[in-house]
Design goal:
Helix content is about 20%, strand content about 50%. The protein is α+β, with helices and mostly antiparallel strands.
């Protein structure tokens, strides 16, 4: 019997090979993989400015030592703003009233957020304004530089969805003297501040909230 070569059976006679079977399964596998990746990506995209994806938990990204590099309250840039005031001298022999400029700055502002849920804030607020006593004594505007050291501590926590962060103050002092209120609602009876988390990355955090009827916007860097 002679073996005939070069003859192939017509299509459809032989069953599909394993290779053909695997090739048909690959598109479905890729679809599942892409769909799963999309779900993971969207679930991580919680904050307006990111991070969209991070290997660190939200709590791990929040804790640590932070410096505030940008801060606004209302229309004021808290690191550098000024305004004009008018005051009565109360001494007709000198002048009845005078107008002067007040300048504010913050050379130091650190926040420490601990993994245990505690926070500690230290800040130095500087103000350049008139020395009232010297101004009255000399009948001319005499300016001086004044500083206040602020220390606050308490507890911090996320809301249930980890979209907000709340600070509950245990104490708030200026130059060692206990104050009412909080850092951004000075003089009130409130003890909490709540912020929306706009951005939360390994070395950057952006918080925004309405405190005492004024919009407060803070950017932290490590």
């Amino acid at each position: 019997m002679r073996l005939i070569t070069g003859v192939h059976p017509p299509p459809g006679i032989l069953p599909e090979t394993n290779q053909s079977f695997k090739m048909k399964k690959i598109p479905a596998f890729i679809f599942v993989l892409l769909f799963t990746g999309t779900l993971i990506f969207n679930s991580c995209n919680k904050y307006e400015d990111g991070a969209n994806l991070s290997m660190r938990t939200k709590k791990a990204r929040t804790e640590g030592d932070w410096n505030i590099t940008s801060a606004t309250q209302g229309t004021n840039n808290l690191f550098n703003y000024s305004y004009v005031e008018t005051s009565s001298a109360g001494d007709p022999g000198c002048f009845d009233e005078f107008t002067y400029t007040v300048e504010h700055s913050i050379p130091e502002w650190q926040w420490n957020l601990k993994a245990s849920g505690e926070f500690h804030i230290t800040a130095v607020f500087k103000k350049r304004t008139i020395d009232y006593g010297e101004t009255i004594l000399n009948c001319t505007l005499v300016y001086g530089d004044f500083s206040t050291t602020v220390v606050a501590q308490g507890k911090w926590e996320f809301d249930d969805k980890k979209e907000k962060i709340k600070f509950t103050y245990d104490s708030y002092t200026k130059d060692g003297v206990l104050q009412n209120g909080t850092l951004f609602s000075d003089g009130t009876t409130g003890t909490t501040e709540e912020f929306d988390i706009v951005e939360l990355r390994n070395k950057t955090m952006h918080l925004s909230g309405t405190i005492n009827a004024k919009e407060v916007d803070l950017i932290f860097e490590q």
